[in-house]
Design brief:
single chain; mainly alpha; about 70 residues
Length: about 70
């Protein structure tokens, strides 16, 4: 098959280009960092809410355990 070696060569060239430090910096600064900042701005409030909810649940768990412990004594 003719397509196999050509495709393999193309993949090897792409991998070699991605391994270059300059290319990695470009990818990081123009793609990864903005994506992380966008996701952080969208998800951060939900994570705060979930943290607060978990804190309340743990607090209520301790109150329930305290009430059960005092009832048995």
């Amino acid at each position: 098959m003719v397509l196999g070696p050509i495709t393999q060569e193309l993949i090897d060239q792409v991998i070699a280009e991605i391994k270059k430090e300059e290319t990695q910096i470009k990818i990081r600064t123009s793609l990864v960092d903005p994506l992380i900042k966008y996701l952080h701005s969208k998800v951060y409030t939900y994570l705060q809410f979930l943290g607060l909810l978990m804190g309340i649940m743990i607090f209520l768990l301790f109150i329930i355990l305290y009430m059960v412990w005092n009832r048995r004594l």
